[in-house]
Specification:
Blueprint lengths: L8 E9 L9 H15 L3 E8 L5 E7 L2 E8 L4 E8 L5 H11 L4 E9 L6
Antiparallel strand pairs: 1-5, 1-6, 2-3, 3-4, 4-5
Helix pairs in contact: 1-2
Length: 121
Amino acid sequence: MKNDPSALGRHLILELYDCPAELLREPAQSEEFLLTAAARLRATVVTSHFHAFSPYGVSGVVIIQESHLTVHTWPEHGYAAVDIFTCGDLDLEAGIAYLQTAYQAGRCWQRELPRGMALVG
């Protein structure tokens, strides 16, 4: 992925399908995955917070100096929605590859959106 110099930031949407439900139920598991992904991105972690919902599902955020990573899981569907937003020059490919492997995604889809285009230039 190329960094667009006309944008303030990059927003990556990562859809992970066919993930084992047991990997999507526990907040500690998703927190470990996103913190490791942040390290692979070469991001600077500020803090993190994760929450389990009843009867199931997790939402969490890792705040990085360069912006944030978030996840929302649906174990009953084997699905995790991950967002990576950065205003820094991070190694997105390394973080994405790690998350696909960690969540054991059978299928994935991703899209990158430039952010803040109207403010630059």
